[in-house]
Design a protein that fits this description.
With 121 residues, this protein is mainly α. It has helices spanning 3-14, 17-40, 44-63, 67-94, 97-120. The chain contains five helices and no strands.
């Protein structure tokens, strides 16, 4: 394992659950931005890899939802995650950078919401 991977793994393992969620959002946003660059540079293998990373992270976020404790918030997040997952498939097929920009904006807004919660804890 290279030093950066070791650092990232340690950062995630020592983070609080809230910090882990924020880290996942950050990683998904980075992957989506990289996919956008890949589309613009016509680097299809890298685009597919970055979209897959973002999709995997969104699935992880979705699977971590607690519908019993989270109520309507969890249901709403589940709907958003479904939309994001479906849209990433469309982006992968059509190389739609505008839709990708929209998804990045959604993820950044959600991340800001979690960061707002973290600042109050």
């Amino acid at each position: 394992m290279n030093p950066l991977d070791a650092y990232m793994k340690n950062s995630v393992q020592t983070a609080s659950p809230l910090q882990q969620v924020i880290l996942l959002y950050e990683r998904a946003i980075v992957a989506m931005k990289a996919a956008k660059e890949d589309i613009e540079n016509k680097n299809i293998p890298s685009k597919v890899s970055n979209i897959t990373k973002a999709s995997d992270i969104i699935r992880a976020l979705d699977s971590s939802l607690d519908f019993e404790k989270g109520g309507d918030i969890a249901k709403n997040l589940h709907s958003i995650y479904d939309f994001l997952s479906y849209s990433l498939i469309q982006i992968n097929l059509k190389n739609d950078t505008q839709l990708l920009n929209d998804l990045i904006e959604i993820m950044e807004n959600l991340k800001e919401g979690w960061e707002g919660i973290q600042s109050k804890v």
